[in-house]
Amino acid sequence: MSIIRQDDLIQSIADSLQYISYYHPLDFIKAMHEAYLKEENPAAKDAIAQILINSRMCAEGHRPICQDTGIVTVFLKIGMEVRWDADMSVAEMINEGVRRAYLHPDNVLRASILADPAGKRINTKDNTPAVIHMEVVPGDTLDIEIAAKGGGSEAKAKFVMLNPSDSIVDWVLKTVPTMGAGWCPPGILGIGIGGTAEKAMLLAKQACMGSINIQELIARGPCNALEELRLELYEKVNALGIGAQGLGGLTTVLDIKILDYPTHAANKPVAIIPNCAATRHVHFVLDGNGAAEFKPPRLEDWPEISWDAGATARRVNLDKVTQQDIDGWKTGETLLLSGTMLTGRDAAHKRMADLFARGEALPVDFTNKFIYYVGPVDPVRDEVVGPAGPTTATRMDKFTEVMLDKTGLLGMIGKAERGPEGIAAIKKHKAVYLMAVGGAAYLVAKAIRQSRIVAFEDLGMEAIHEFVVEDMPVMVAVDTQGVSIHQTAPKLWQQRIGKIPVVVE
Q1: What spatial distance separates the first Cα and last Cα of the chain, rounded to whole Å?
Q2: Contact call for residues 51 and 390 (beta carbons, < 8 A)
Q3: Where in the chain is the domain with CATH 3.20.130.10?
C-alpha cells in the first residue's frame, strides 16, 4: 500500500506541465534532426531548422515552444492499493495543478480553454478544466501520462467507421491530405483501431504519447500485423510529399503509432489524431515517496543549427509597402518584415464581422496593413510579448472576403494553407497570404520589438494587438494571382518521390 498526498499530486501535475512547455522529448529532437539532415526541399529544410532552433531557445529560456500551450489531457492509472491523504477529489487535485502551472509567474502559459463552448465561449483564465481519463488497475502506484495538446493539431482529428473488409491504408492515404498543414508536420500520427467510436478516438490520443521508434522498427523488422501496418503507413504517408509545414518534402511524419482493441464483428472503427511540432507529453509514476522529479535534458542533446533568411530574401517595410510591391511577390519567396502590423484571430474576426453587419465602424484602421493570425502568450520579465507563433489560417477563410472588401487590408499572415474560399478572396482583391512557421513561436517573438493591445481587450489572448516587428521571417504562400504553394509543392514532391501516383484534377 502507498499513500499519495494531495500536495504531491498537485505539485507533480504543475511541474510536469511547466517542464513540457519548454522541453521537447529528446526522441522528437533526434527524429527532427534526422529529417533535417535528409531533407532535399530547401523550404521544408528551412522550416525544420526554425523548429529546432526554437526548441533549443525554449530549453534555454524556459519559455513555451508554441504560443498554443494546449488543452491538458491526463491518462491516470490508479493502483487498487493506493490510499489518499487528500480532501480534494482526484479531478480537483489535477485541475489545481493545471491552474498553478498555467499561472506560474516565471513562465506564464496561455489560457486557451473556453467554458460554454456552444454559447458565450468564456475563457476560464487558468486553462482548466483538464480532460481526465481514469482507470483503476492492480498495484499501489499512480501512473500518469500527461499532455498539453495544441488546438491546431487537435482540430485535424479524423474518425471513420469502416466496413470490416475496407482497407485502413487506403482510408489513411485518402484522409491525411485533407488534414492540410494546420497540425504543423512533421510530427506523429496516432491511430486507434477497434473498440467503439469513442474507444478508437481514445486509443489514437494515447498512441500520440508513444516514443518515436520507427527507425528501430525498420532496422529489426516487424513482428506482428500492427508493426507491418506502421511500416507501410510510414512509407506511404511520407510518399504523399506533403512535407514540413505542407511545403512539400521528404518527411511528413516522424512516426506512425497504432493502438488497437477488440471490436464488434460488424465494425472497423479507425481514428487519426496528429501530434504537432510542439509535441508535449511526459510519463511519470507516484509511489508515495513525494512529488515527481523531472530531470532537465542536456543542451548538448540539441543539434547546433544556424539559420538565416538567405541572400535572396526580400526586406519589406510594412509601413511603406504598396499594392504595386505585393503584386511582384511570388509564392515560395522569403520576406523579412519590419514595421507595424495588427493581429486578430477567430473571436476578433467574428466581432469585426458583426460590426460590419450592423454598419458600425471598426475600432482600428486596417488600411494598407497586414493582419497576423496570432494569440500570443503573456510576457514575463523584460519581454515585450511572449511566444507568438501563427495560428491556423483556414479558420479565418470565412471572414477573408469581408475583411478584404471592407478594411483595405493588403494581406494576412498565418500558418498552413488557405482553403478555396480564402484563396478566391485573395485573388479577387489582389491581396497576399504570408506563412510563418508553426512550432517556432519563441523564435518569432524575438522579432517583435513592441506590442500593445489596441482593441477588444476583453478577448484576452484573442484581443487585437499592434506589433512592431523587425526582420520577421515569412514566406509568400498565396500570391496576388491566387497561386498557393500548399497546392503546388506537395504534388511536385509526391511526383519526385515517385511511390504514389499523382492524381491530376
Answers
A1: 64
A2: no
A3: 314-489
